[in-house]
Structures are given as C-alpha cells and as structure tokens.
Fold this sequence. Notes:
This protein is mainly α. It has one domain (9-129). 85% of the residues lie in helices and 0% in strands. It is globular and about 50 Å long.
Amino acid sequence: MLQKILISAKPWQKYMINIILHIIVCIATLTFLLSIAAFTIVRIDTPDYILVPLTTLLLTATSFMDAFLLGKVYKEKGAVIGVSVGFVFSCLITAISIYYGIFSFSSLYITKLCAVLRAGALGGIAGVNF
C-alpha cells in the first residue's frame, strides 16, 4: 500500500513520508531499548547515580543503531544522516524534559546532546562504509 502511495506522490510528498517514517522508526527503537532498561532497573535494585549514564548510553546506542540502518539504506551521506538522527533524538530529549518540567540547560545536557549527535554521525558513516 505504501508503494502505491509513493508512486503517485509528488517528490516533496515522498520526502515528507520518508522523514515521518524515519522518525517513527527512531522513536520505536528508542522506546524498545528504554523499555528493556526500565524492566531491568525495576527488577534489579539500581542506585540513582547509575540512571543518568545508563540513559545516555541507551540514547547513544539507539542513535548509532538507527543512523547505521539508515546509512545502509541510503548508502550515501552517512554523516548527514547520522547527525539528523542525532538531532531527532536531541529534540525528543528536549521535548520530553520540557513536558515533565525537568529541563535544565546544563553541562550534563550539552554532554548528552554531543554524545547523541556524535554517535549518530559515527553510525551513519559506519552504515555507509560497511
């Protein structure tokens, strides 16, 4: 069904459909990994100081995986694809933080954003090259 829509769609509509599908894949991957982490955290008595590095690690791993997969699909412009995936995750982090009222512009926030963007770029480059 998606193929029929893409065949009859205009170029800008195809571009928008691809963007929406990629954002959905990014959110689904992040939700899956965070669900596994939440299950593990609940089952094991995890100290509070582990949570921030754990979520940063999961965000960077998800950014790397999604950028790697998209780099494999497009086979070009891996760094741009990776940074855009990292940007989507950065927007998600910011939006969720603002929604829950815990947003604070600090060095930890900047470190997390840089890690997510860098992991996305590396994943995109690796996806194109391997």
